[in-house]
Description:
This protein folds into 3 domains: 2-150, no CATH class; 162-384, Mur-like, catalytic domain (UDP-N-acetylmuramoyl-L-alanine:D-glutamate ligase); 393-512, Protein-Tyrosine Phosphatase, Chain A, CATH 3.90.190. It has 21 helices and 15 strands. It has helices spanning 2-29, 34-43, 49-64, 67-89, 100-122, 126-138, 140-150, 152-171, 187-198, 214-224, 243-251, 266-269, 272-279, 281-285, 299-302, 356-370, 375-384, 411-421, 442-456, 469-477, 491-500; strands at 177-182, 204-206, 231-235, 255-258, 292-295, 310-314, 322-330, 333-339, 345-350, 393-396, 400-405, 427-432, 459-463, 485-488, 507-512. The chain has a 9-stranded mixed β-sheet, with helices on both faces. Strands 10-11-15-12-13-14 form a 6-stranded mixed β-sheet, with helices on both faces. Helix 19 (442-456) links the parallel strand 12 and strand 13 (459-463). The radius of gyration is 27 Å and the shape is globular.
Amino acid sequence: xxxxxxxxxxxxxxxxxxxxxxxxxxxxxxxxxxxxxxxxxxxxxxxxxxxxxxxxxxxxxxxxxxxxxxxxxxxxxxxxxxxxxxxxxxxxxxxxxxxxxxxxxxxxxxxxxxxxxxxxxxxxxxxxxxxxxxxxxxxxxxxxxxxxxxxxxxxxxxxxxxxxxxxxxxxxxxxxxxxxxxxxxxxxxxxxxxxxxxxxxxxxxxxxxxxxxxxxxxxxxxxxxxxxxxxxxxxxxxxxxxxxxxxxxxxxxxxxxxxxxxxxxxxxxxxxxxxxxxxxxxxxxxxxxxxxxxxxxxxxxxxxxxxxxxxxxxxxxxxxxxxxxxxxxxxxxxxxxxxxxxxxxxxxxxxxxxxxxxxxxxxxxxxxxxxxxxxxxxxxxxxxxxxxxxxxxxxxxxxxxxxxxxxxxxxxxxxxxxxxxxxxxxxxxxxxxxxxxxxxxxxxxxxxxxxxxxxxxxxxxxxxxxxxxxxxxxxxxxxxxxxxxxxxxxxxxxxxxxxxxxxxxxxxxxxxxxxxxxx
Length: 519
């Protein structure tokens, strides 16, 4: 009996370990949000079929009470281990980061597993002990959520300490100008463009990459802020109401810029009105002498309530704010003229492709000029701007061009990417898995995207049959040649097919969105 229980315990530990590594990776990608992760488990329940099998067989062990059924249970746990090892071995776009939080959750799970094994050995029947181990091995995905729940008081305390430390550092720099940047899309691009322009005159600290959560912002402050910094550009992301206010309560922004409002993260926001309220939490948090910069090309922004401290920027003619007139758009870049509220005008040239990129650069110009950098001094840094990685990034290869727009697609951005693709005369190929996190409107927006793509593309390659059903329907309903529509099993399969598409001239491939690993 002891030998059997030892073997069963080893199988249990192996099964739990590999499941925890995979599950923790997915939990991290789901933002450590319990509700989101539980929903993810439900959406991906087919991946946990082996866990269900272990659960069912654990019941069989109780009913039949013999070594054979227990031995089969051990075999199932071993096979389950190999399955989850294969899942985690797949090349990840964003690997599991063993943060202090993840380490604390691992410790909690180790202690939980130790208790389960001790109880399994203490119960009088080896069958009951084996049943307990099998049962717990089948519910590991939920144990990860449990460990997060158990650790909540600890995590709250740790976060409070770091946040208070960051606040003290900001308080020690009373003259620091904090610029909050938010929006449904475009905020990361505007942040980097603004950083490049402001550096011509000021010492600037900017949140790196897509650091736009409270702990990402706090980490930036604690590790990089110093007394020499004059401006702190803080990107502010949100998936739930109150997220922007939480960030503002930490950094207390002087100025704010809202780059756009649109249908994104509707799974959590539920409707566009909640998106508007959340983004405008930045406006409500500005200091008395602060300015709010708004993209007046965005219909949701122009239709929302007005603020007295607003400075607008737009490509539509306006008597107030910054007005940009696009002169020329080609695959080599864009030429546009900006007129400031003072009436001063200057012509700018940028290597960025796509007319929609002009509005992002204009937002950066508006802020920089308001902070006393003359338009004339911004001409050269604007010319030097380069695309932000995976955001309409142009990549030239031997016989083809790739437009990499793989970062977090949305309905407005996807249409803008297609408009950019339409500028090219070469054979146009779209590769996309579609858009996600659009709630109940996801199919509607993907269907519309399919119809838009059909009007522009010569070939369309969709990644994932189930995920792209609504896009495929939109494509075909628009009268697109079904022989030029290909459904790929993976991104690699899609790219291999794109490379083999017959073409008399150069090919251009638009990569629109790249689903995260938890999809």
